[in-house]
Design brief:
Elements (H helix, E strand, L loop, with lengths): L1 E4 L4 H10 L6 E5 L10 E4 L5 H8 L4 E4 L7 H22 L2 E6 L23 H18 L5 E5 L2 E3 L7 H11 L5 E3 L8 E3 H12 L8 E3 L9 H12 L6 E3 L4 H4 L4 H6 L15 H6 L7 H10 L1
Parallel strand pairs: 1-2, 1-4, 2-3, 4-5, 5-6, 6-10, 7-9, 8-11
Helix pairs in contact: 1-6, 2-3, 3-4, 5-7, 7-11
Length: 305
């Protein structure tokens, strides 16, 4: 049995599509689970409830953590550390391995131009500090031999059905409404995005590769160094629309956050949009002989979906 906690978002859904190549015993767990494959087992559960989480883990060989709690620093402080401690206890009890889908918020802000698995962990934002704390809880358990786990870290996600991506919310959706696309920060700096279908393939491969555990992996991300402006242009070209790009400067996010709540939350990580942000996944690509989806292919699949 391989269990996906929080399946339903872009990463979890794509993972379920790929796991069927390794096992027919797939359990999908969230508040409103839906089948991706006909043989999927569904379990409705509030994963913040330790008893329900334990029931979800029970009988699992591998547990994939693709859950996304509400994108608020105050919520993250309450949910993530408690969830990880409970997860470790259940996985230790049931001898289940953990595949933890992580982000790069804990990386040092001055070392984003070529992020690797060895990049310095020195968070400057509150969300990054929370992620670093959760990571330490997990890796301490690994070092103490309590659980076997791997960390699969991605850049900003994008892809068909990934509604939380800035490329979807501020670029694609605006163009669909014949509005000007918007981007945060500087549009002449490099910004990597990790394609959701590549994430699904990579997570399934990692979870089913025994020697991949007890280490950190960057999920496959195209090596092209596109600047933010070029990402927007890919969408405009694919959709046959040429619009003026509206740039939301970092300094304005705090003020606008008074009226647009999500901008208040994004201000915490706004530094990621004012400098080169290049996500290096060469470790995974070489180990698994994997070629990530090109930005052109990814954007076309979104537009044609």
């Amino acid at each position: 049995m391989q269990t996906i906690l929080g399946a339903g978002g872009g990463a979890g859904t794509e993972l379920a599509k790929q796991l069927i190549n390794f096992t027919k015993e797939i359990r999908i767990v969230n508040r409103n689970p839906k089948k991706v494959n006909t043989t999927d087992q569904l379990l409705k559960a509030d994963l913040l409830n330790p008893l329900l989480l334990d029931e979800a883990v029970k009988g699992s060989e591998i547990v994939y953590v693709t859950i996304a709690f509400e994108y608020k620093t105050s919520v993250w402080k309450e949910t993530w550390p408690a969830f990880m401690k409970n997860l470790i206890e259940s996985c230790k009890k049931h001898k289940a391995k953990i595949v933890f889908v992580d982000n790069m918020y804990m990386y040092d802000a001055n070392h984003l131009s070529n992020m690797t698995e060895e990049t310095l962990i020195n968070p400057t934002c509150e969300k990054g500090k929370i992620r670093a704390k959760v990571l330490k809880i997990l890796m301490d358990a690994v070092e103490q031999g309590e659980v076997n786990a791997l960390v699969a870290r991605g850049a900003d996600f994008y892809g068909p059905g990934v509604i939380g991506s800035i490329l979807t919310q501020s670029v694609y959706n605006n163009l669909l409404k014949d509005k000007n696309p918007q981007m945060l920060g500087k549009i002449d700096v490099i910004h990597s995005f990790t394609y959701s279908k590549d994430i699904g393939k990579a997570l399934a491969a990692l979870g089913n590769t025994p020697d991949a555990f007890n280490q950190v992996w960057h999920l496959p991300t195209h090596e092209g160094k596109l600047i933010s402006k070029e990402w927007v242009e890919l969408f405009m070209n694919a959709m046959g629309k040429q619009k003026k790009i509206q740039v939301l400067p970092v300094w304005a996010m705090g003020m606008l956050g008074l009226f647009i709540p999500i901008l208040k939350e994004l201000k915490d990580i706004s530094y990621q949009f004012d400098r080169d942000y290049y996500f290096n996944s060469s470790k995974f690509n070489k180990h698994f002989n994997f070629t990530p989806t090109t930005p052109e292919e990814g954007v076309k699949e979104i537009v044609n979906s």
